[in-house]
Amino acid sequence: MNNIASSTAPGFTPVSADSVAWLGTGPVPAAPYYDPAYYELEREAVFRHSWLQLGHVSELPEPGSFIRREVEVLKASVLLVRGRDGHIRAFHNVCTHRGTQLVEAESGRAGNFSCPYHRWSFSTDGRLLSAPDFESFGLTKEECALPAIALEICGGLIFVNFEPKISLREEMGPFADWLEKFPCAQATQFSEYVYEINGNWKLTYDNFQENYHLRFIHPRTGGAAVSDENPFGYPVKYGFHGPHRTQTIWSNPNVKPTPLQAISFGKGAQFAMADGLAGPHARDYLALFPNFFVIGTPTQSFSHTIWPLGPERSRGVIRLYWKGEDDCASRRYAREYALASARDIHAEDRAVIEAGQRGLSSGALKYIHFQTQEALCRHLFNNVNERVEAYKAELAGGAA
Amino acid sequence: MSALLPDGFAALEPFVVRWAVSGTAARAARRGASSAEEREAFYGAAKDMLLPALAYLDGKNLAEFDAADNRLMDMMLSLAHVALAVEGLGNDEPRHAEMRRHMRITRSPAGV
């Protein structure tokens, strides 16, 4: 084990402790990773005011296209709709009469939305079109439009915010321009796989923003990410803007692919080059607060969203983005291989995250620890906790 | 008698029943339910046929594939899954299959 005792070796220089010391170096309280009371505070302090990635523009290809997305952490059902004017809007999926959920279908195309209960009917831009015996309510139709939710699109990705304090692009700063250059910005379709996990959303998310675990959890699938020079596969650099963060992935220049791996990723690379997907962020991972990240690699660009389902349960949604249809057998094959290989790696993380949750939920630990190369985990916790503490102070002020 | 596979790929016919599987999730599931012997036999027979098969299939539009072409396409897509097991995971595949079971494929350009 001597060869992995140190994170430094000739040929690779890890990010220094000094450069991320501003995040703090002390232990981090364990309770926020399992405590139901803390989770309740997060729901309001973090998720109600954050930009949440809910979809991709390719899911709404034409006027009338809609998708329904459940945001369990806010007990909300959201309707994303492309209107006749081509604009994509977000609404609460509730009839303004008595709150009945308007749309049951997960996706589809509609000229309008009619409530199953009393047939109130709404346009794709949220206006109330008609309601039986509407005169009896003494209301105007304008008062009864579907409740809108703030929506912004960046890099082809649809974000909503239930109670925004700042615009998405303002909050993202330079990262908005980055995201516009990621493959997802040009994507016209995607592959997707989904998992549920007995893990707190931060604990789950943290697994995917540190490489310290790679050689232990991915000994056979993660070979491209480690070497003698960089035994833990640590990133080349980290970056921060407000609550968001990045890392630039290091890759082993001497990795020897397996025979079909070479063919499959070789074909994927050829298509990515031909499609103009090799942008300036091919090795960059962009983590957008609170629960979304996307990687810009042109051959296997994927996003991962971790949705809280409870203090100790989450859902992960992973999407690989593709530009254009499957126009030939080789392209279809390259995409199938890319999906299967990414899924192989992600599948390996779930069990160890659940083991971590069991340990934390036992209450045995008051604190957990992050090292320098887990700086992104610390940054997430700091930003969550800052908002939770501010919200607690607000509640205390209101009660005083 | 019409061939199960296009000309030149008859050597793969013994594997059609098991590996000409339609749908990405179904192919992943077939890999997960297969034995090491089945995977190794298929991989051994198909790995050198991958490039010739794709070259042949690339000569046609996907929409114009006949039944034999579709079988060959589906087999090469199954090979993508099987190769990960044979080349990468080796004897760790059974444990890995259980972990993968939780990762539900819900969307694929090739159809779920």
Sequence-ordered SSE layout with sheet pairings:
The complex is a heterodimer of chains A (400) and B (112).
Chain A: E1 28-29, H1 36-45, E2 52-56, E3 65-71, E4 76-82, E5 88-92, E6 107-109, E7 112-114, E8 121-123, E9 128-130, E10 148-154, E11 157-161, H2 168-172, H3 174-180, E12 189-197, H4 201-207, H5 214-217, E13 237-241, E14 244-248, H6 259-274, E15 284-288, E16 292-295, E17 302-310, E18 313-322, H7 329-347, H8 350-361, E19 367-368, H9 375-399
Antiparallel strand pairs in A: 1-19, 2-11, 3-4, 3-6, 4-5, 5-10, 7-8, 8-9, 10-11, 12-18, 13-14, 14-15, 15-16, 16-17, 17-18
Chain B: H1 16-19, H2 24-33, H3 36-46, H4 50-58, H5 67-89, H6 93-100, E1 104-107
Helix pairs in contact in B: 2-5, 3-5, 4-5
How would you sum up this structure in a few lines?
The complex is a heterodimer of chains A (400) and B (112). With 400 residues, chain A is α+β, with helices and mostly antiparallel strands.
Give a verbal description of the structure.
The complex is a heterodimer of chains A (400) and B (112). Chain A is α+β, with helices and mostly antiparallel strands. Chain A has 2 domains: 2-47 and 173-399, Naphthalene 1,2-dioxygenase Alpha Subunit, Chain A, domain 1, CATH 3.90.380.10; 52-154, Rieske [2Fe-2S] iron-sulphur domain (Rieske Iron-sulfur Protein, 3-layer Sandwich), CATH 2.102.10. Chain A has 9 helices and 19 strands. Chain A has helices at 36-45, 168-172, 174-180, 201-207, 214-217, 259-274, 329-347, 350-361, 375-399; strands at residues 28-29, 52-56, 65-71, 76-82, 88-92, 107-109, 112-114, 121-123, 128-130, 148-154, 157-161, 189-197, 237-241, 244-248, 284-288, 292-295, 302-310, 313-322, 367-368. In chain A, the strands form 4 sheets. In chain A, strands 2-11-10-5-4-3-6 form a 7-stranded antiparallel beta sheet. Chain A is globular, with a radius of gyration of 23 Å. Chain A starts with 27 loop residues before the first strand and ends with a helix. Residues 1-8 of chain A have low confidence and may be disordered. Chain B has 112 residues and is mainly α. Chain B has one domain. In chain B, α2 packs across α5 (67-89) and α3 (36-46) packs across α5 (67-89). The radius of gyration of chain B is 14 Å and the shape is globular. Chain B starts with 15 loop residues before the first helix and ends in a 5-residue tail after the last strand. β12 (189-197) of chain A pairs antiparallel with β1 (104-107) of chain B.
